[in-house]
Design brief:
The structure is a single chain. With 217 residues, the protein is of the alpha/beta class. It has six helices and nine strands. The strands form two sheets. A seven-stranded mixed β-sheet has the order 5-4-3-6-7-8-9, with helices on one face. Strands 1-2 form a two-stranded antiparallel sheet. Helix 1 crosses helix 3. The chain is globular and about 50 Å long.
Length: 217
Amino acid sequence: MNFEKARFNMVEQQIRPWEVLDQDVLDLLMTVKREEFVPAVHRELAFADVEIPIGCGQVMLKPVIEGKILQALRVTKSDTVLEIGAGSGWFAALLAARAEWVRTMEIEPELVRLASANLERNGVQNVVVVDGDGVQGWSGRAPYDVIVVSGGLPFVPQSLLEQLKVGGRLFAFVGEAPVMKARLITCEAEGRFRTEDVFETVVPMLKNAPQREAFSF
């Protein structure tokens, strides 16, 4: 398989047509080698417009989704980032290429090992993979400039919002199937947030995602 040609086609035929036009994002997707983070058995799917199984019932999101997230967040070199759901480490590597540092939390020990090994093998040094449930964030290194939730949530917990710096951005998939909102939340001032729904999609729910309390009569 010609990985370079497949990578070019992914960017030009999938990602750019879906209105990902930030050239820095497109260049990044051409530079960070996605096939290095895909399980060997699925490597031929590395650039396909599909979710790729990585074990533990988890998947790598479609490349177009990852491009849209990066474009919306506008990560800069001074940003500190919390990712919830490390998966294979691929999206952490993309974030790390633009940020000062990334902490990525993963609840599945098998995926902690996978992400850590992939990041180390590819020379990504400004990411730490944290073994733990990140659904309420990680206050130990808060506040953050950027928080990314890589799985679905019925709603965004207040604890996550409280871990954003003023000017910080949080990206999450909010709602339930058949439609979720890919939502960008910006902290405009202490306790004040602006919400923008960037696109609609469906992604797997985050493990241990909080549930709204049911009303009883």
